[in-house]
Design a protein that fits this description.
This protein is mainly alpha-helical. The protein has one domain (28-193). It is 77% helix and 0% strand. The chain contains seven helices and no strands. It has helices spanning 3-12, 30-36, 42-58, 62-82, 90-107, 113-134, 140-193. The model is unreliable at 1-28 (pLDDT under 50).
Length: 194
Amino acid sequence: MKPFAALALPALVLLPQAALAHSGHGEAAGLAHGFLHPLGGADHVLAMVAVGLLAGLRGGRAPWVLPASFLTLMAAGAGLGMAGIGLPFAETGIGLSIVAFGLAAVFGLGLPVSALAALVGGFALFHGYAHGAEMPETASGLVYGLGFLAGTALLHAAGLGLGLIAAHAGRTRVAPVLGGAVAASGAALLAVHF
């Protein structure tokens, strides 16, 4: 793995949007706003790309199961947020998800796909909650929700492509570097936020 690629994920933390994506950004309405929301903060970008990366590195059924688990439980979390049901420590859960996904890429690739899907899905609730809590209560909320699901799927696909390339290059060599970079990025985001 080239040094540049190993540093790409941590470099995202240095971007101006490194502050978490939930500081409020005006009215969130419509498909385009929903689609762009996951792309608007390093926390979402890192976590959602990391899900695809983890799926690609794990292989087998994981490229389908992990993103499906994330999207399904993210939608459930959005329902909680839309209903006004509180989910404590949502921002912390989002930051920890990045660390957990990175560590899973380093140490957990031998786990059953079902265990990885449970890990991914559990943290997806926090991401979905954050989206749902910001979703408007108007009819456009559904369209916004479809937009953020599509944006999330795009980020999963980008991570999956990276994971498949990395697995082809040698999973045992590349997974610790990429996973470590993801985990370190998550730790840095948590440190910035808290």
